[in-house]
Amino acid sequence: MLEQAFHFNIPKYEQEYIDIHISAIEKNAMNHNLSETTLPNLDLGEQLKQLVLDELNEFHADAELINNLVLHLNAAVKRLRLGVNIHNPYTEKIKSSFKQAFFLSVNLLEKIEEQFLVRFDDDEIAYVTLHIQSFLDRYRPNKSEVLVVCS
Predict the structure, then answer these.
(1) Is Nucleotidyltransferase there in the keyword field (predicted)?
(2) Does the first or last residue of the chain, that is N or C, have fewer Cβ atoms within 10 Å of its Cβ?
(3) Is the domain of 26 the same as that of 51?
(4) What phi and psi, each to the nearest 5 degrees, are found at residue 60?
């Protein structure tokens, strides 16, 4: 259907990947008695935005970070409520390389878990970490480490 509507070809492996996710969402929606009338209530944008602003107040001025986080978290909360998890093959690398951003992400997501009654795994936390690390990289002052040796 997409191929006909937009006049392009989707490789078979991508069709199967999309089908897996759609099937999982349909299955979980039926298991949770979610109907089309309840799905629009999952739009959490404003609630998420306020929570993100409250928790990341030191980053308040960065609209790019806030907007990207809210978009990501809105989709993530919807997925988690439907029982759809995503895998991040770089989770361990992200955790070890970006410890400060991972810590900030954990703190933020704990508040979101409490408010929206969902549970973020390390894979999802790692994706949020990339948003925060991107901000830190953009606004981190260029620090030069200098060693002065006097004789």
Answers:
(1) no
(2) C
(3) no
(4) -50, -40
Q: CA–CA separation, 40 vs 47, rounded Å?
A: 14
Query: Is there a single domain that holds both residue 24 and residue 49?
Result: no
Give, as one character, the DSSP assignment of residue 140.
S
- Tens of pLDDT, residues 2-50: 677 777 787 776 776 676 666 655 555 555 544 443 333 445 667 777 7
Tell whether pTM > 0.85.
Answer: no
Type of residue found at 53: L
Amino acid at 57: N
62 and 21 share one domain: no
